[in-house]
Amino acid sequence: MSMRTRLLWPLSARLLLLGAITVVALFAAIRMGAVSMSTRALLDALSAHGDPATVTIVRGLRLPRALEAALVGSALAVSGATFQALLRNPLAEPYVLGVSSGAAVGAVISVVTGWSLLCVWSLPVLAFAGAVLSMLLVFRIAYSAGRRLDTRVLLLAGVVVGSFLVAIIWLVLTFADTESVRSAIFWMMGSFANASWRSVAILGVCLAPSLIILFALARPLNLLAIGEPTAAYLGTSVERTKVVALGTATLLTSASVAVSGSIGFVGLVVPHAIRLIWGGDNRGLLPCAALAGAAFLVSADALARTVAGANELPIGIVTALVGVPVFVWLLRRPAAGLTE
Amino acid sequence: MRGRTTGAPHAFTSLRRPAPVLSAYTRDKDGRVPLEILVRRAALIAASATFASSTACGGNSRAADTAASAPVSSAAIQITDDADQVIRLTKPAVRVVSLIPSATETLIAIGATHQIVGRTRYDVAPEIRSVTSVGGSIDPSIEAIVNLHPDLVISWESDRGQQIRERLSAAGIPVFILRTEDTTDIFRGIANIGRLTGHDSAGRAVAQSVRATLDTIRHAVAGRPAPSVFYMVFPNPPMTAGPDTFIGQLISLAGGRSIFADDSSHWPNVSMEEIVGRDPDILVVPVGELNPNSLSRFRSLPGWRDLRAVRTGHIYAVPADLMSRPSPSIAAAAHVLEHVFHPDVDGIHSTVHRTNGARP
């Protein structure tokens, strides 16, 4: 740990603050929207009273959407923090192993074949399958280079497999009709417009055990960040930690990508922002990143839905436009330091 | 920001017959959304073909006769196109490449089928199936066009259209740019295409006949309460047709009221929330040849499934090929819409067929 002056809050205080911010963000998100309503009407609608259209808007559209944004924000931030610790690379992010491209191949296939029109679930299922297959391919390549899992080889394999899959996507889209291309590109830009209670439930079921596993790996991840030999001396089962953490983080990312498309920037910047404020101890970083990621993506989605009227902005535009200035400001603070 | 128009009167609902037209084959046991009107393409093509011939013959039989043979006039032609460029032809074009499917339909309707030497991959009319395809509307192969030695190319009003014009002009091929946003554009387009190809009088006759059909429909639905309508151009993000597009104009002409008639843009993206807030009586979904079954998914999509139109089964599939072509087929399109909005009006030559054989 560096000796820089960081805010030395106890973990419980940090979690309480971030939890409060998340709740406020969630409330603001269901308060804002194309159709305006009073707080009174909103509270009525939340308890399923009042105008049926308002109830549908609040309980059927806004609430699942805000919750899905929160879950995806948590998933991406935690998996980004995990990748950065494992790969010892500050530029690592959740999509570094080609997961988003793999998911996009699945999504594009589902759109172009028309299956997504026949069955609502074909797109997320195929996207998830594509993401997992690309992850397995990347691991296979990384292992074929040696018996141990070399994270540098893994990174390279992720990049080249990703490029290959992107080429496949454009090859397919070149021969697709205009409407499919439009659907596919919209999906690739990322959006929570398709959020439903079912997708929230599925995501929640994937998220809970993954978060527990990764939180439990926080200490080994700390030791790995120092170096693999050191971690091994100190009693960490290095190979197992790497495989379990990488696998869990990638599955987490795959589930998020499958329901909402690839949303950039959250997994990269939220963990760094938490590190800059409170330091890089993964035991505090991972849970804080989970809450901060949720609050950030919920707010970003609320902005994306409302700033341009009915023309919803792609969520990635908002995360970058809002996130980059905040991040630059954090970097420029005197106490800032990107690495430990 | 758009103003709120909630609280619109829903008088129409109560005026409807107690059982909606479709409930006869509503399969509520498994909760399927009934497709009230499903137009099969075969029926549609038959209808529009009948329509095209009836307009050409009924209006002006002489025009139809001459249309089948060579172009009528042979004097030099000078027309300003929709991008304000003057197109000069020494004689009517006899080798035409149409990059716009609706212009292709216009050419067929005015009897210039045999003058079409190139089409796009989007054309569906059986008359020109054997004509060479030059690719897409905005991404045609310039080489393929040049190779056809056309004396006229008809292209979209767009940046891409201008680029195509630039490159074809260098090869000495005149390009006529056509705008197709509203019905005025469509009538002007029919007249211009008629003049360019030497079918002036047939063009006038077709336009006259389309006008007459639209007038008939307008009168038939006059005074009837207009159901509120959401016309879904694209599902996600939801997009509809603005009031100044030909589709928007046809909706109000056929006695419907678009819930986004206050949106001034042509093809506005709208939010699911506002669709739910404005809760239309009727949901109109243009579908292509392959995916009429896709309507059932609205039953399970959040937002859509809560719409009154979906719950009560007033969700209608209309043929996309017919609805989205700004050509003389707007007359048939208006008939489809009239039938959807006012099923009890007896159309003289209705083009809509219910396809469910189980109906009594």
As for the number of domains of chain B, it is 2
Q: Could you give the distance between the termini of chain A?
A: 6 Å
Rounded Rg of chain A: 20 Å
Most extensive chain-chain interface: A-B, 33 and 27 residues
Number of helices of chain A: 15
Low-confidence stretches of chain A: none
Brief overview:
The complex is a heterodimer of chains A (340) and B (360). Chain A has 15 helices and no strands.
What labels describe this entry?
heterodimer; A: 340 residues; mainly alpha; ABC transporter involved in vitamin B12 uptake, BtuC; 15 helices; 0% strand; globular; B: 360 residues; alpha/beta; Rossmann fold; 5-stranded parallel β-sheet; 4-stranded parallel β-sheet; 12% strand; disordered N terminus; disordered C terminus
Structure explained in plain terms:
The complex is a heterodimer of chains A (340) and B (360). Chain A is an all-alpha fold and 340 residues long. Chain A has one domain (11-332): Orthogonal Bundle (ABC transporter involved in vitamin B12 uptake, BtuC), CATH 1.10.3470. Chain A has helices at residues 11-31, 39-46, 52-87, 99-112, 115-118, 122-144, 151-174, 178-189, 197-216, 218-226, 228-233, 238-260, 266-278, 282-306, 315-332. In chain A, helix 3 runs parallel beside helix 10 (218-226), helix 4 runs parallel beside helix 7 and helix 9 (197-216) runs antiparallel to helix 14. The N and C termini of chain A lie close together (6 Å). Chain B folds into two domains: 11-46 and 224-341, Rossmann fold, CATH 3.40.50.1980; 73-198, Rossmann fold, CATH 3.40.50. Chain B is built from 13 helices and eleven strands. Chain B has helices at residues 11-15, 41-59, 61-68, 101-109, 142-147, 159-170, 183-196, 200-221, 246-253, 272-278, 308-311, 320-323, 330-341; strands at residues 77-80, 86-89, 96-98, 116-119, 132-133, 152-156, 175-178, 228-231, 257-258, 282-287, 315-319. Chain B has a five-stranded parallel β-sheet with strand order 5-4-3-6-7, with helices on both faces. In chain B, strand 1 and strand 2 (86-89) form a beta hairpin. In chain B, helix 2 (41-59) crosses helix 3 (61-68), helix 8 (200-221) packs parallel to helix 13 (330-341) and helix 9 (246-253) crosses helix 13 (330-341).
